[in-house]
Design a protein that fits this description.
By secondary structure, the protein is mainly α. The protein has one domain. It has 26 helices and three strands.
């Protein structure tokens, strides 16, 4: 069931083209890599630039009406279904833009990395999967591209193939697969009970199914892993420091947004009523939203606290990304909680997605550039670099003030909207719990300002440490990319009302909100005295925290290991699961061992029973020959025409003996060839387990990941290309 296409929808192949072009480009990368590897980055820039241009065209179309495209190859009766609304168009455009900038940045950065063809192959596959998530109209299609992105990005995480990278990649893949299975289970349950997986309001149908809460939990867990939601965030601080800087920028700036996007579609669309004016139906959505709000609050505050104590710049930014995702998740929760009255929440979390993409992707690239030029990433070994990297220092300062929410920079605008959303949420039911959530929101802002100030001052201010050498200066491509990011941060921060009118206003009006709250949202004053006073209070708290931390050397101390999520949650959970699996495994092993060890005894019993059957058959069939012969001879002697009866009886006995002989030979052949087949299969499996030589083993071995992935995507490219041509 693919749903009904809106009457005013625009039928276009642009969504399919945006997805297929990076996949085709990934296949061409392998060919170009074998011929002229030095052209790989330039080719990848061309592919991402083309995707960006098409995304701009798609964005303009989506601002007129939803853009729809159906690709008939999919999941049985469920084809790949694309429908791009204004929210999906915003996510798609900002992702394509950041991806293009990261590719331009790669021109210089990737010169010190190896295996460019493999890197860009999975780089483009990840792009296709990531953009596909934002363009789909149903959960099955979204799941397909979500898994493509997760599997392909795994190869970006382990690109350096160091021990640390392989461990981080193993955790990333383990959680990615687990999250994908959770999403798939939720989708299957939803489809089983409702007969639909379309991303559309269906709360009326969902309230009738007995597992509605389980479906919601599975989907939130699956998407929450990718979004870096606490306590499912543990892969982020491990994956970011080991991945190449362009990949880290995309992991943090773009890919984790797919998780937030999935949660937004579930909580803000699917679990909402088709008739929003019926306020009684919003009760379940409010409960759902309340939980997500607190998940966001816990995520933003705990990750900001952890970021204060990090000495590795990329790990600090990784915790910062988790914290900023907490802001976005809180906005999504407010959207579900406020329901029909939620324009402020929708505008807030959408704008913060855009802002975070700019300042966090930029920060990862700038820190990566510092590492590329100095070979150092530890904060206590850096300092005084603003003279050597002036463009990087200025843009980093803009990004730092943006993430801190300083007025005039982009982060301030989205944080004002998010703050108004959480205030509206606790005023809706006069909830003290949400009042405390708003207080934690303010405290988290102070911690954010503190750790980002520490990061900037440690890298660019102070004296340059002895022994810190500069290998190279800022190349033109870094200045270009950082300049674009800095300009975007300034433009958004200084033109909030233009964004409200041109971007957020049309987006909010495309959702079925109460007109009163839409008008209130459109008349919001970003420079309100209360908002500026709140920001001033955050800066004062951050300054006090920054001073105390340096005065008493708090931030250089290592946190006790028992404060980590791994120690508090995952280690006990793993121990319990390990114990359960070990005991169940021992039971299975004992059963299997007994089956094999006792098989000679079973065979003996079988043979004995076979001999008994054989003796019985011989006694009945073969043993009857002599009595029959004697009877025939006696009858032939006693009667004149007796030989005739005797010959008939003798012939009958001969036929019976022939049948018996054939039966015995047939049984013998069956056992003989069964033994041969069993031994052949056993030695074949044994050779696969213990023999690592030979082309056949190389082909069928499941660890040959790239071979199977390449075959799969070549077939997918052919099918999609034929669809575009036909």
């Amino acid at each position: 069931m693919i749903g009904v296409i809106p009457e005013n929808a625009i039928i276009s192949s642009l969504p399919l083209a945006i997805v297929i072009i990076p996949i085709i480009g990934a296949a061409l990368v392998l060919i170009i890599g074998r011929l002229q590897e030095r052209f790989l980055t330039a080719f990848t820039i061309g592919v991402t630039g083309l995707v960006l241009l098409i995304s701009v065209v798609l964005f303009r179309l989506a601002w007129q009406a939803d853009v729809v495209s159906i690709f008939p190859v999919g999941f049985g009766e469920l084809p790949l279904f694309f429908r791009v609304d204004k929210l999906g168009a915003v996510f798609n455009l900002i992702s394509a833009l950041i991806w293009f900038l990261a590719t331009v940045f790669s021109l210089s950065y990737m010169t010190h990395e190896a295996k460019h063809a493999r890197y860009y192959f999975f780089y483009l596959l990840t792009l296709g999967g990531c953009l596909g998530v934002f363009l789909t109209a149903d959960l099955f299609s979204l799941f397909f591209f979500f898994e493509l992105m997760s599997i392909a990005s795994y190869m970006l995480v382990i690109h350096t193939q160091t021990d640390e990278a392989m461990k981080a990649g193993k955790l990333y893949l383990f959680l990615g697969v687990g999250g994908g299975l959770a999403i798939l289970a939720g989708i299957i349950m939803l489809y089983w009970f409702t007969g639909s997986v379309i991303i559309a309001p269906m709360l009326e149908e969902i309230l009738l199914i007995p597992v509605r809460t389980l479906v919601a939990v599975l989907l939130i867990i699956g998407f929450g892993i990718k979004a870096g939601m606490v306590p499912l965030h543990i892969w982020l601080p491990k994956a970011h420091p080991v991945a190449p800087a362009p990949a880290s920028a995309l992991l943090s700036g773009i890919m984790i947004k797919t998780g937030a996007y999935g949660i937004a579609r579930v909580a803000g669309v699917i679990y909402t009523p088709a008739v929003p004016e019926i306020h009684e139906l919003w009760a379940y959505a409010e409960q759902f939203g309340f939980i997500i709000i607190w998940l966001g609050i816990v995520t933003m505050s705990s990750a900001a606290f952890m970021a204060l104590f990090q000495n590795n710049a990329k790990r600090l930014l990784a915790y910062s990304s988790v914290s900023q995702m907490g802001y976005i998740l809180m906005g999504v929760g407010c959207l579900a909680y406020l329901g029909y009255d939620g324009p402020m929440a929708l505008g807030g979390f959408t704008l913060h997605v855009v802002n975070h993409a700019f300042f966090k992707a930029g920060m990862f690239m700038m820190v990566g550039a510092i590492y590329f030029h100095t070979g150092q990433i530890e904060l206590n070994k850096l300092g005084g670099l603003w003279r050597d990297f002036p463009v990087t220092a200025v843009v980093f300062l803009f990004a730092a003030m943006g993430i801190a929410g300083i007025p005039g920079l982009n982060g301030y605008t989205s944080k004002v909207l998010l703050h108004h959303a959480i205030v509206e949420a606790y005023e809706l039911h006069d909830s003290y719990a949400l009042y405390m959530a708003e207080r934690i929101f303010m405290l988290t802002g102070a911690m954010t300002t503190c750790y980002i100030a520490r990061l900037f001052s440690s890298i660019f201010l102070g004296e340059k440490p002895q022994g810190l050498s500069i290998h190279s200066r800022e190349p033109w491509n870094e200045r270009l990319v950082f300049g674009v990011i800095g300009a975007a941060i300034l433009f958004i921060g200084t033109n909030p009302f233009l964004l409200l009118e041109r971007l957020l206003g049309p987006l909010v009006r495309s959702f079925p909100f109460d007109e009163y709250y839409v008008n209130y949202f459109m008349k919001l004053n970003f420079w309100d005295r209360h908002d500026l006073q709140g920001m001033a209070a955050i800066i004062i708290m951050a300054a006090a925290l920054f001073y105390s931390g340096h005065r008493f050397s708090l931030f250089t101390r290592k946190l006790p290991h028992w404060l980590s999520v791994e120690y508090l949650l995952y280690q006990p959970l793993v121990n319990i699961l390990f114990s359960l699996f070990t005991r169940s495994g021992r039971i299975v092993e004992t059963v299997v061992d007994n089956s094999y060890v006792n098989s000679p005894r079973l065979l003996t019993y079988y043979c004995v029973s076979g001999k008994i059957v054989e003796s019985a058959c011989e006694g009945v069939i073969v043993g009857s020959l002599k009595p029959l012969s004697k009877a025939a001879f006696t009858i032939s002697v006693l009667e004149n025409n007796g030989p005739i009866f005797g010959r008939l009886l003798l012939l009958t006995a001969t036929i019976l003996q022939l049948i018996y002989t054939l039966w015995v030979n047939w049984i013998t052949l069956i056992f003989y060839y069964s033994k041969k087949i069993f031994l052949s299969a056993f030695y074949f499996l044994f050779s696969l387990d213990y023999t690592y030589k030979g082309k056949f083993f190389q082909m069928v071995n499941t660890s040959n990941f790239e071979y199977y992935l390449l075959v799969f995507f070549i077939l997918l490219i052919i099918i999609m290309a034929l669809q575009l041509i036909m």
